[in-house]
Every structure is written in structure tokens, then in C-alpha cells.
Design brief:
- This protein has 242 residues and is α/β, with parallel strands linked by helices.
- Helix content is 22%, strand content 28%.
- The strands form 2 sheets. Strands 1, 2, 3, 4, 5, 8, 9, 10, 11, 12 and 13 form an 11-stranded mixed β-sheet that branches. A two-stranded antiparallel sheet has the order 6-7.
- Keywords: Hydrolase, Metal-binding, Metalloprotease, Protease, Ubl conjugation pathway, Zinc.
- GO terms for molecular function: K63-linked deubiquitinase activity; metal ion binding; metal-dependent deubiquitinase activity.
């Protein structure tokens, strides 16, 4: 179970409850903030209330997100599961899901869906299975993670469109990019900028790889998160649906 004390920098712990054979229980250490910065949540504790908006523009102008905690071992474990594809220069993707406790989100499940991959793309299939897992476990969709086996650590035009669907559902949702061949930055945790990036992608009707104009304010479309805590004491499950 999640610890009630305030996380410091990173955290992990294992569950004692029996789990189904398709679930791999992973250890988790105490929390550490990725690019740490104090975060004062202004959103109501109930996500349904936080999402009570009347238009896309209201979503774009939503308040600051709540803290998001991720296990310090999650990325490493994901890369182990992606190794077979990575060795073949094929992308791998996973879905991040979790719970809300004391006005903080915790990623407690890494779901690996059935998928079709190339060297620069990854498309989930049988998505109803993902929804079924989230529904049965009462999990919030907190983002996604995928590899760039041959490229650097960045968000492609396809990536930002994929992430838009997560972030409009929940402002806390993140996109994690794993780039093992990028010597300067082998991973990144990103969100679309608000309101700039969200507005640009909301208005874009193109598909596939394509360029985007910068937001009206001249800022970036996406940026690295400064309010995500890498928590060494956080437990999580790996649910492989492949």
C-alpha cells in the first residue's frame, strides 16, 4: 500500500496481496522529484470535478495539475520488457495508470497492450482490453510510455497528437520517451504546454508525421515536466496483455 508520509525523493515497496499470473509485481523505492519544484495543487480532489468544463478552451485553460508520483524503477522495468523490440529497432509502448490519494496521483500500473510497431511508430491494438483493465481496477489513465530505439529523446508530431488525447482527459497525464541511443538524454517526461501546445494540437487536423506552427505565444509545443516525483517507495504492477 502507498505510504502516508510525505515522499522525499524516491521510493519502492512490494505488495503482499496475491496477484493473477499475468501481473508481474514490481518493487518500488521513496519519492524524488524529477526536476523538483514546489507544487501547490489548486484542483479539487475529485477528478470529475476538475474535468467539469464546458468546452475545449476550458480544458486548455485548466488549473495547475496535481503532483504525479512514478516509481523510480518503472522506466527500467519497461525497458527490460521492450528489449526484444529495441534490439530489432522497433518501438514499444505502454500505458500508465494509477490512483488518486490525498490529492496526489500515483502510477500503480504499467499496462503493455497488444501493439504493432515500426522503427518510428507504435500503434496499440485491442484497446478495449486496456479499458477493461483500468475499469476493473478503478484506475485513472495517467499517460503513456514508449521507446525511440533509433532516435533521440523528443516528442514527434505523432507523439504530441497521441498525448493530446491523454492530457485533455487529465492534465496530470505525462508522456515518457525512452531513447537508449541518445547519449545526452536517454529519457524524458513531457507534457504539452498549456495553453500554447494544447491549442495548437487541438486545432491541427493533420495525421502522420508533419510540422506544427509554434504556439501564438512563441513558446514550445511541449516541455519537460517539473512536477513529477520519482518515488522509490511506490509499488506498481506490470500487466502484459501481449
Amino acid at each position: 500500500m502507498l505510504r502516508d508520509e510525505e515522499p522525499s525523493l524516491i521510493s519502492f515497496e512490494t505488495k503482499e496481496i496475491p496477484v493473477p499470473p499475468d501481473v508481474i509485481r514490481q518493487p518500488s523505492p521513496p519519492p524524488v522529484l524529477a526536476e523538483v519544484q514546489d507544487l501547490i495543487p489548486e484542483m479539487p480532489p475529485q477528478v470529475s470535478e476538475a474535468m467539469d468544463v464546458s468546452s475545449p478552451d476550458d480544458l486548455v485553460c485548466s488549473k495547475s495539475p496535481l503532483q504525479l508520483h512514478i516509481s523510480t524503477t518503472l522506466m527500467e522495468n519497461f525497458m527490460k520488457m521492450a528489449k526484444r523490440n529495441t534490439d530489432k529497432n522497433l518501438e514499444t509502448c505502454g500505458v500508465l495508470a494509477g490512483s488518486l490519494k490525498n490529492r496526489k496521483f500515483y502510477v500503480t500500473a504499467l499496462i503493455i497492450p497488444k501493439q504493432e510497431s515500426t522503427s518510428d511508430s507504435c500503434q496499440t491494438t485491442n484497446e478495449e482490453e486496456i479499458f477493461e483493465v483500468q475499469d476493473k481496477r478503478s484506475l485513472f489513465p495517467l499517460g503513456w510510455i514508449h521507446t525511440h530505439p533509433t532516435q533521440s529523446c523528443f516528442m514527434s508530431s505523432i507523439d504530441v497528437h497521441t498525448h493530446y488525447s491523454y492530457q485533455i482527459m487529465l492534465p496530470e497525464a505525462v508522456a515518457i520517451v525512452m531513447a537508449p541511443r541518445d547519449s545526452s538524454r536517454n529519457h524524458g517526461i513531457f507534457r504539452l504546454t498549456n495553453p500554447g501546445g494544447l491549442s495548437v494540437i487541438r486545432q491541427c487536423q493533420q495525421r502522420g508525421f508533419h510540422p506544427h506552427d509554434p504556439p501564438p505565444d512563441g513558446g514550445p509545443i511541449y516541455k519537460a515536466c517539473t512536477d513529477v516525483y520519482m518515488n522509490p517507495n511506490l509499488k506498481f504492477d506490470v500487466i502484459d496483455l501481449r
